[in-house]
Amino acid sequence: MKRDMTIGLVLSLFTALILNGYSVAQAQTVNVSGQLIYVQHITGEGAHFISRSSTTTYTYTVDPKKCSNISQNGTYMATSSMQPTTLSIFRYDNQQMILQMPWSTNWKPCDLYWISDTVLSISDPTSSTKHYHIDIPSGQITIDDPPPYVEPTYPQLPNWMSQNPVLFSPDGSKVLYEECPSNLVIINSDGIYCRQYPDWVIYDTVAQLNKVHITDINGSSYQAYGFFAAAAWSPNGRYLAYLQEHNFPLRIFDTKTNQYLDTSDGMASIPVDERKGLYWSPDGTKVAMWAVGRMAEPEPGDDERTLRQLVFFDTTKTDSTNYMLPDRVDNLATVTYQPGAWSPDSQAFAYVNAENSLIYVTASSGVTSVLNNNVLFIITWKAYTPPPPTYTPANTATRTSTPTAVHALFSTFSTSIQGHIS
């Protein structure tokens, strides 16, 4: 297929020091910027939590009989078991034990869920709403029994049908919403409707006025329902990328210049996999998405079935030079369901393909490499921070903290347990 890039296999050969399920490996063949953390599962071996950077690979292997979950930013690991007696939380990068505490009978076994980078949530098995939140820095346990839902407050959006969603820019200065002219609104016992597809409008929350009506490639007002998967703001809130009728071509609106960047490059309308949406790079210059269909004429040896392809668009390029990577194995079309992640420097993109291979893509060239196999999903890809110089394996009783600090922390949690869950 034209403009397809061949996936090259890169075998990662290293010598690892293994200690109590935790291993530290030497630098890998692919120079991975930042810190890419993902989960690998091999039958009979349990889950492997792997952190990979340009210099080091850390691997923590969880016993198949144990339960575990890693915090959203990859800092903390929580572990227990199906018949738990203890909850352990430790630093993932150096295995320093942060706390160990008795498992409460009011906690549902193996229900370890991080609601933020530093707060672990465990549900109550007798309630569908009650959760126990453990805040790591403060050592406090709180009980969360959610109150009735409160409708969020929105700006006074002109002709906005309130049951329709809105999409705020990251800085909150702009809102994408669906506008229906007042003379086209229908109100009956079934709800509120618009006689036509509503217009997509960007509202300026600072100036408190509509900034622009989004247009399609023909210059007409763009009208459609729903945009959560078909539109995305760039991280700095300057660009709005959106798909027309949830298909190609992709349009990008520059709110600073009020200009459109069209990325059709002569391609026909092709469906996009909305389950994964649009991915902006951290620096706001590139967009990645999954297309479902051919974007060029097939070449000899290509699968005749429809291919699912990862597509890159670069807002800094004026020649519409972008890259399309088929998600396939041995020229056979495949399907992938896992989302992807950008490197913190916006130079690479990673995703798990249909064969559970972790694929690394250089965004500037489209060249790909296989980082690992049997991968379930990506946890995060963040800037690399070297771990503390010493570590203690998490499944031992020894801690690197001072005895006084450990005793005080454990006492705080014990007191919290007695106060909240007797």
Characterization of this structure:
With 422 residues, the protein is mainly beta. The termini are far apart. It folds into two domains: 169 residues, no CATH class; 170 residues, no CATH class. The strands form nine sheets. It has a six-stranded antiparallel β-sheet, with no helix packed on it. It has a five-stranded mixed β-sheet with strand order 1-34-33-32-31, with no helix packed on it. The N terminus and C terminus are likely disordered. Helix content is 4%, strand content 40%.
Query: How many domain regions?
Result: 2
Shape: globular
Count of helices?
Answer: 1
User: How big a fraction of the residues is strand?
Assistant: 35-45%
Share of residues in helices: under 10%
Please give the order of strands in the largest beta sheet: 2-3-6-5-4-35
Query: How many angstroms does the end-to-end distance come to?
Result: 65 Å
According to DSSP, the number of beta strands is 35
Largest sheet: 6 strands, antiparallel
Q: Mean pLDDT score, rounded?
A: 72
Could you tell me the radius of gyration in angstroms?
Answer: 25 Å
Taking pLDDT < 50 over at least 5 consecutive residues as the criterion, the unreliable ranges are 1-20, 265-275, 303-307, 328-334, 391-422
What's the layout of helices and strands?
Blueprint: E1 7-9, E2 16-19, E3 22-25, E4 35-42, E5 46-52, E6 57-61, E7 66-70, E8 76-81, E9 86-91, E10 97-102, E11 113-114, E12 119-123, E13 131-135, E14 140-144, E15 166-168, E16 174-179, E17 185-188, E18 191-194, E19 199-204, E20 209-213, E21 231-233, E22 239-244, E23 247-254, E24 259-262, E25 278-280, E26 286-292, E27 308-314, E28 323-326, E29 328-329, E30 332-333, E31 341-342, E32 348-352, E33 358-362, E34 368-372, E35 375-382, H1 403-420
Parallel strand pairs: 1-34
Antiparallel strand pairs: 2-3, 3-6, 4-5, 4-35, 5-6, 7-8, 8-9, 9-10, 11-12, 12-13, 13-14, 15-16, 16-19, 17-18, 19-20, 21-22, 22-23, 23-24, 25-26, 26-27, 27-28, 29-30, 31-32, 32-33, 33-34
